[in-house]
Hints:
Number of strands of chain A: 9
Strand content of chain A: 5-15%
Distance between the termini of chain A: 19 Å
Distance between the termini of chain B: 9 Å
CATH architecture of chain B: 3-Layer(aba) Sandwich
Number of helices of chain B: 4
Radius of gyration of chain B: 16 Å
Oligomer: heterodimer
Strand content of chain B: 25-35%
Amino acid sequence: xAEGHWSAKHLLGIAELEANDITSILDTAESFREVASRPIxxxxxxxxKTVLNVFxxxxxxxxxxxxxxxxxxxxxxxxxxxxxxxxxxxxxxxDTARNLEAMAPDVLVIRHPHPRVPHQLAxxxxxxxxxxxxxxxxxxxxxxxxAFTIRxxxxxxxxxxxxxxxxxxxxxxxxxxxxxxxxxxxxxxxxGPRTMMPRHAEALGAEVAYRVEDALEGADVVMMLRIQxxxxxxxxxxxxxxxxxxxxxxxxxxxxxxxLAKDDAIVLHPGPMNRGVEITSEVAxxxxxxxxxxxxxxLAVRMAVLYLLAGVA
Amino acid sequence: xxELVTKSTLLDQAQIARVMRRMAGEVVxxxxxxxxxxxxxxxxxxxxLADAMVREIERVEGARPLEGILDITLYRDDLSTIAPQPxxxxxxxxxxxxxxxxxxxxxxxYTGRTIRAAMDALMDYGRPKTVQLxxxxxxxxxxxxxxxxxxxxxxxxxxxxxxxxxxMDTDGVEEVKLLDRV
Lengths: 313, 182
């Protein structure tokens, strides 16, 4: 009956998925795009299911995107965030997990500053777990929505050259994207300042460039990452950039630089953007930018993931 | 593992064509023409049925009624009892259904649960003037108070029997067979 459908209890990372699982999720997301065009943008599929969105790290768009996706599927969505959770009151992870489980959610969407917390929780509690970002490790739904957006424009991921520019070392978006794109037969080149490049960047499966021009040359897709200004020079964190001006000068995506990529290259950014730091407004608002489509596609992809997980939940 | 064995062919290709022509005529007769008439095929095998009826109506009336496709997967009442999840496909309605006479088309009417789901799905798209139901085969065993307005062939079946409808578009052959488990 099922045509080679992805069926799993959790979505922990892209690492756990095969190429045909990814295709199955993206194909399902295509069908969910249509729901957004209806007068009543809601289907009864997850009626009676409870989804907890537990965010131990601040997030507006990912959390909102999950919440809208859950509500469009008729699930009951409840949000927890650090400021309101007991973790700041000294509760241990295991106790938090047990408390969450006692509320018997069918699905737990979790973001946490530490890598692999979702994986640990998956072993501790009964709910389906969706990783909404764990430290610098993975952010699978972001990579899936990026892939979905690229596929809608290019028809396929296979054979594409994708340039990813920014803070490669501290980005879970990069990790998940490189894993996914490599599994789907695309080639990836990452570029960024040496201070933001992991020592063994090639181990990710990507080519490494230290000049943004080298990465952009011949690219089908350009993915610009957010420079996390809030993490620059704060207490305890290293200063990785001399100045944002210098970053823009060396790595920022301007129309001139974009001209190095293929004529039909598209530009992605996971948001929120720092205009004038990693990208100019001309490019961000230009015809090649698909940044707002990414947001809309994020809903369809998250609905698809929730739908597919609920079969096992 | 039970095996399915063909007991008989209920309709062959020529008979299916005749039955669909008759149903198309009945739809137009009942609705006094094709004004605001929309035939919606329920995926998968309601789609070729709706398509054939639309073509027949166009041939006779000289104008084409509206045609749509409905995927009812997200409205099924058994999603929590089956795994893995069934494949979801897109619904495609040509224009808003408000005020339309909608004829839902499906291959087999059995428990009525598919039609219940289809009506729920339909209401999320708007408020049709009326909703009618056309099925190629009505095999009985209803579990819900639902009946068809246009029926190709009524068949008495037992619970263990299976009706297998094949269309050229979806299956490469056009026939309706009665099978039984052994």
